[in-house]
Amino acid sequence: MIQRMSKVQIIGSRRIMEEVIEHLHSLSLLHIESIPEDIKRNISYHIIPLHDNEVILKERAEKLLHRLEDLIILLPRPSAHLISAMAYPSGLSSEIGKEGGLKAGKGEFMITDILSDKFLSDFDVLENKLRDLHKKKSELEEGLSLIERYERILKSLAPLISRLSELKHIESTGIIIDKDKAAIIPLLEGEIKEITDGMYQIFKRELDRESIGVILTYQKDYDEKVRALLSGEGISEIRLPAEYSDLPLFDALKHMIRKREEFPVEISSIEKELERLSRDWYLRIEDLLYLLKELVNEFKTLSYCTCTNYTFFIFGWIPQIYLDKLKDSIKRKFGERVMVIELKIQEGELETVPVSIKNPGILKSFELFMNFLPPPRYDSVDPTPFLAIFFPVFFGLILGDSGYGLILLFAVIYLWFKYKENTTINDVVKIFFLCSLSSIIFGILFGEFFGELGERFGMHPILLDRVRAIKGFLILTIAIGIGHVLLGFIISLISSIFWRRKKEALGTASSILMLFALFLLVSILADYLPKEFLTMGIIITIVAFPILLISGGIISMIELIKSVSNVLSYARIMALGVASVTMAVVANRLGEMSGNIILGIIIASLIHALNIIIGVFSPTIQSLRLHYVEFFSKFYKAGNRRYNPFKKIRGEVKLWRRV
């Protein structure tokens, strides 16, 4: 849910401004911004200039921050258990070792150290070493990849290479011929025989199902004529990489085979060296990055502060639930020397208010799907709770098989225990835990357990049979679509009323009435409702139509038509659901047709496995689409501002203080 925000202004004595900034930094509650123009007009202010040493410190900190951000990318991140073993007191000191290498030691890091040129040069040693290692690794991997392209040829021709490589004054040429053109080989051999006066040998070996490798050996005196023949006939020779092009074919192939064995060893050696450097330096550099970010953030906050000769002003936003905590903390720390004043949020500011979203429990996991969209505007609605309700329902309607749901549940439980410490995977696990339960429940309602196998175990459809009652399933999904789209309009109506947008509320209300009347008329024409409801539908249309035109113009009518197409889009739930159960039935039937119980189980299991994989990805994508396009479009207003409090990244570290 979107938290209610408070606009605050902090006013205090200029002499304690740095202490207040440090305290706000530690509280990590206030989203600090520049003073609004309407407030600036009422005071004679100026921006606080940085002292000369602060300017130098800020520039050095920013420079080192960028350097270290690039540097840490070159280090592989240690595994979780190594990170635990590598824990050390926060801070970093460094020195150049006897051999000129960068040595790391434990100790307290002094932020003023970055004023030293030596401090930056120390990291040059590590960076140069890392870049050299990565460059060499990249070259080896590229060379290995190049050799692997010839691996098929090398493996096939290796026996011939060993037999022919010792021959002197012999030229060799390798060619590849498609199997469907194998008839050209005898013709080619006849031409070679004539050119070389019978002084030749030809070796053939099947490379794969589509091609044959051929090696021709002959006296070097005939090399020019043989190559002219091959070129004239359009036969492609084996083209070796440029670095091997000057070597004879057999020498080149032997060299490549040797490198094929050596390169992985060298790459492994480089990776071990990178891991060693990572163990020594990764967490230390990461810690320093956090400290530098803290420092840069505090300097950045100074640029937001304005002053008179004796007073400073800080402006920002804070969730209402934390406002009392901010006031109490400031009062305890600074007494009456600092005031926290809550300002009224003007209507024109609603689009600029930073948004803080907070959802309890498992609802928070569904924020993962909202990260694909820009945050909602402050005067919009957070759709996360609705996504948490309907996403598993749509998923279950599509997958809808108890057997598949159980397998998904076991997979989710396995991932839960394996990746407990990974926040993102935990969110995914929680989401698909609900989805697996939904699939099991709908599987019971549809009477499905690995397709129609449920019937053999005594299961019977409670809600409907998706294979036999396709029309009923379609009506169900369209009805869900109507309810879902109408809910989107209702949410929009409530939001408009709450924020006192009268014209928008009137237009939304008329859209709801028109949509209701339209589906009422369609239901009457399709004989789903008695004709007595016709009068009601006509009256609603006569009343709502002019209101809709007045409040929204012709665009509102286009949006209404679009809403009808949105409803029809929910038919994809039926289509995908029927496809899923049909594939399950096909798996069972093919298994039965095999005539062998073991083979039948294997065939059925493979098709069911494929269906489960499709049944996880397809419902996920389609359910999200129905929410993003059909549902959210009715009420969701995208913003571009997130609540980003001025906060400590890691611990209580005092970085600087003006004197």
Task: Summarize the SSE layout with pairings.
Elements: E1 5-13, H1 17-27, E2 31-33, H2 37-40, E3 46-47, H3 52-73, H4 80-85, E4 93-96, E5 102-105, H5 117-149, H6 151-164, E6 170-178, H7 184-196, E7 200-206, E8 211-219, H8 223-232, H9 249-304, E9 306-307, E10 311-319, H10 320-334, E11 338-343, H11 367-370, H12 384-399, H13 402-418, H14 423-446, H15 453-456, H16 470-498, H17 502-525, H18 534-568, H19 571-593, H20 597-631
Helix pairs in contact: 3-9, 5-9, 6-9, 12-14, 12-19, 12-20, 13-14, 16-17, 16-18, 16-19, 17-18, 19-20
Strand content: 5-15%
Q: Which structural category do the helix and sheet elements fall into?
A: alpha+beta
Mean pLDDT: 80
Distance between the termini: 44 Å
Radius of gyration using CA atoms only: 36 Å
Major sheet: 6 strands, antiparallel
- Helix % is 55-70%
Overall number of strands = 11
**Silhouette:** flat
Low-confidence stretches: 87-108, 650-659
Q: What is the count of DSSP helices, taking H or I runs of 4+ residues? A: 20
Account of the 3D structure:
It is a single chain. With about 650 residues, the chain is an alpha+beta fold. Among the domains are: about 150-240, Alpha-Beta Plaits (2-Layer Sandwich); about 360-465 and about 570-635, no CATH class; about 470-570. The protein is about 60% helix and about 10% strand. The chain contains 20 helices and 11 strands. It has helices spanning about 15-25, 35-40, 50-75, 80-85, 115-150, 150-165, 185-195, 225-230, 250-305, 320-335, 365-370, 385-400, 400-420, 425-445, 455, 470-500, 500-525, 535-570, 570-595, 595-630; strands spanning about 5-15, 30-35, 45, 95, 100-105, 170-180, 200-205, 210-220, 305, 310-320, 340-345. The strands form 3 sheets. Strands 1, 2, 3, 9, 10 and 11 form a 6-stranded antiparallel beta sheet that branches. Helix 3 runs antiparallel to helix 9. The protein is flat. The model is unreliable at about 85-110 and about 650-659 (pLDDT under 50).
